[in-house]
Amino acid sequence: MSDLLPCPFCGAPAERFTLGEGEPDNAGGDVITCTRCQASSHVEFGRKENLVDCWNTRATAVTSDLREALEGIIHFSDAVAYRDDTLSVSLRQWINRAETLLSEQPA
């Protein structure tokens, strides 16, 4: 089985899980989930050997600039509540940069 590639959205490591009884509709299925942004694969019940290949071969249109912008948004979203104008302005700048980069990505 091949190693999991990082998340295509934020670059964080991914983990593979077998869902248990806590998820009755999906119990026994496997899923791959990002450890940071929680992006996930589909739940696979049958040909589980293909799940890692599906995760690793998904579209990778996310550029390093976009990844940097998204990491900035994540960083600021994890910060304490908007206490002052500086944080609000900084967060708005990261969001604007991410929106610009996303609009430049091919559809």
TrEMBL record:
Matches recorded under Pfam families: Lar_restr_allev (PF14354)
Matches recorded under InterPro entries: Toxin_RalR (IPR019908)
NCBIfam families recorded: anti_R_Lar
Name assigned to this protein: Restriction alleviation protein, Lar family
Source organism (scientific name): Sphingopyxis witflariensis
